[in-house]
Structure prediction request, 196 residues.
Amino acid sequence: MTSKLGRCVSVSLFALLLSVPAYAGPVLDLSFFALNLTENAQQFSFTLTQPYTLGPYDTLIHEYSSTVTDVDSSGSATVVPTNAFMSIPAIDGPDVSAAGLGSGCTPIDAPGFTDLPCDPFSSLTTSVGTLVNGVFSATVAFTLSGGDSISGNVHLELTNTQLPEPLSIVLLGTGIGAAALRRRVRRGPPLGGTLS
Prediction:
């Protein structure tokens, strides 16, 4: 009987842990493509904004990568960031320059090259401070040489490195309750009573 009760309690606690939804912070994913059909360099800018809730958040994860294609078969392409970086995140308006990624490129290869890495995949984690609710965004801005194209991906994620306080208390209380129940089951029923 005791082992059945112990298994039942273990399964119940495991089910409780599985039923608690895992909380993922807000995510912004941006895929972009630009094709310059002119002979002259052109400036491009893409901005994607995403609201967030359930903050404040203390960590920003930024990932960026891009490839370039020589559409006009000249054997070269040039991608120059408009600002200090190709991709710059912003939280509630101001840029988070410390989290900028991408330096552009000037590849020279066989004429007509396709999907040559411009900015290989890179990732950066930065400490930030956010409001409870707000918006975060990514801006990709660059100048692209004539007759060329670029495509890329940006991933931004707001997270917390520490457990929220209410969750810590729930986990602690669940552990103490499970230990007390297990101890009671091992001792047996109280004197003059039965264990139900």
Observations:
- The longest helix spans residues 165-187.
- The CA atoms of residues 106 and 160 lie 37 Å apart.
